[in-house]
TrEMBL record:
Name of the protein this chain belongs to: Flavodoxin
Native source species: Claveliimonas bilis
Gene3D superfamilies found in the cross-reference section: 3.40.50.360
InterPro entries in the cross-refs: Flavodoxin_fold (IPR003680), Flavoprotein-like_sf (IPR029039), ISF_SsuE-like (IPR051796)
Pfam families xrefs: Flavodoxin_2
SUPFAM superfamilies with a match to the protein in the record: Flavoproteins
Tagged with keyword Oxidoreductase: no
Keywords for the protein's UniProt record, in alphabetical order: Flavoprotein, FMN
Domain Flavodoxin-like fold intervals: 2-175
Organism placement in taxonomy: Bacteria, Bacillati, Bacillota, Clostridia, Lachnospirales
Amino acid sequence: MKNIVVITGSPRKGGNSDKMANAFIKGAASQGHKLAKIAAADMNIHGCHACDACYSTEKPCIFHDDFNQIAGAILEADVIVLATPMYWFSFSAQIKALIDRWYSLNRSQEGLKGRKECVLLACGADDREHFEGLERTYEIMAEYLQWKDAGRVIAPGVSAVGDIENTDALEMAEALGRKI
């Protein structure tokens, strides 16, 4: 049994990337994995302040927002899944703020190294090439953290809520969850 944290980055409830996250969760749950879903858009998480005061208190970060409430779950995860719409060729701002705060987690004794990572991406752009910047960022993060890419589901051409249902992305996300 793996401990899996699924982090969503869309402010749109029930949107395409959120549905992909739920499909992944359904697949992973069918295999008996422990799952937690974190909706970054519902949280008060600010970007990193670059103060380097990480762990100078009993918390990963000295700033008091919702990040410290979820830091433990992220540190305990065997697998981290990022489900986000692509905004301007990158992660959404909501999930990016959370990712930036991983700096504090990587400074701890445990760190973030050695996990598995998956990404579930959706975007209204029809061209798969538009995802290259986001995918490359994901790859660099994984390389730096010594994470193993455990899979990707990328859904281009899904702009309106529900467009994802006209693709095979939900089935692919569920299958990835079962495979993990």
